[in-house]
């Protein structure tokens, strides 16, 4: 009975990997069928993460206290997501698609851990943090995060399951951090004090330069 269950498990895992690779092949083949878009996709997959960082800076300097709390949660969420990714990548190491397969590779990349995707986790944790506080803005960032994640497969550096796992980790990390702040009033109070401390310094700097 145990032997049969084990065999069935490995068959299911094998089927999942096969499905993952088939989906990878479909998306990665867009590099050939939609070749005029390749330069745009390559630039976006390389530098799209900076768009999310620029977004956080915009919200931080947009004069609303709740925006700064949102950015603080997003920053902590990114730290949590990257820590989870690093742990998973260490214990469940998976090579990049281009290591063992012929792929259409549009960007250079180190042969390091593929699973889960840092780009997907980082972009989705920021998008989710924004969505928690501002639904309308959040949906826009969610779409951008999805586009960035797909671009990682298009350019041949990730499997679909890599970016799917990164998405789940990123969204999960954003909600975990938000729940921690909601359930720990003392932590929320410290965050408010830190923001007020920063705003006092900021106002003094602006007065001196005015």
TrEMBL record:
Residues 69-178 form the Phosphatidic acid phosphatase type 2/haloperoxidase domain. SUPFAM superfamilies: Acid phosphatase/Vanadium-dependent haloperoxidase. The keyword Membrane applies. One of its GO terms (molecular function) is undecaprenyl-diphosphatase activity. The keyword Flavoprotein does not apply. Pfam families: PAP2. InterPro entries: PAP2/HPO, PAP2/HPO_sf, UPP_Pase. It comes from the Bacteria. One of its GO terms (cellular component) is plasma membrane. The chain crosses the membrane at residues 40-62, 74-93, 113-132, 139-157, 163-181. Keywords: Membrane, Transmembrane, Transmembrane helix. Coiled coil: none annotated. This is Undecaprenyl-diphosphatase.
């Amino acid at each position: 009975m145990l032997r049969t269950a084990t065999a069935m498990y490995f068959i299911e895992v094998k089927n999942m990997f096969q499905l993952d690779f088939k989906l990878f092949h479909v998306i990665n083949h867009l590099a050939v069928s939609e070749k005029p878009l390749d330069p745009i996709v390559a630039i976006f997959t390389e530098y799209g993460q900076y768009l999310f960082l620029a977004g956080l800076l915009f919200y931080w300097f947009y004069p609303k206290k709740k925006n700064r709390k949102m950015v603080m949660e997003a920053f902590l969420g990114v730290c949590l997501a990257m820590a989870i990714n690093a742990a998973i990548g260490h214990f469940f190491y998976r090579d990049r698609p281009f290591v063992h397969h012929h792929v259409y590779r549009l960007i250079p990349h180190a042969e390091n851990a593929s699973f889960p995707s840092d780009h997907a986790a980082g972009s989705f944790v920021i998008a989710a943090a924004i969505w928690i506080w501002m639904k309308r803005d959040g949906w826009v960032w969610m779409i951008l995060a999805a586009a960035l994640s797909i671009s990682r497969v298009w350019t041949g550096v990730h499997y679909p399951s890599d970016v799917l796992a990164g998405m789940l980790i990123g969204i999960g990390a954003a909600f975990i951090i938000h729940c921690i702040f909601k359930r720990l009033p003392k932590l929320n109070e410290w965050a408010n004090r830190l923001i007020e401390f920063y705003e006092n310094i900021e106002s003094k700097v602006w007065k001196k330069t005015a």
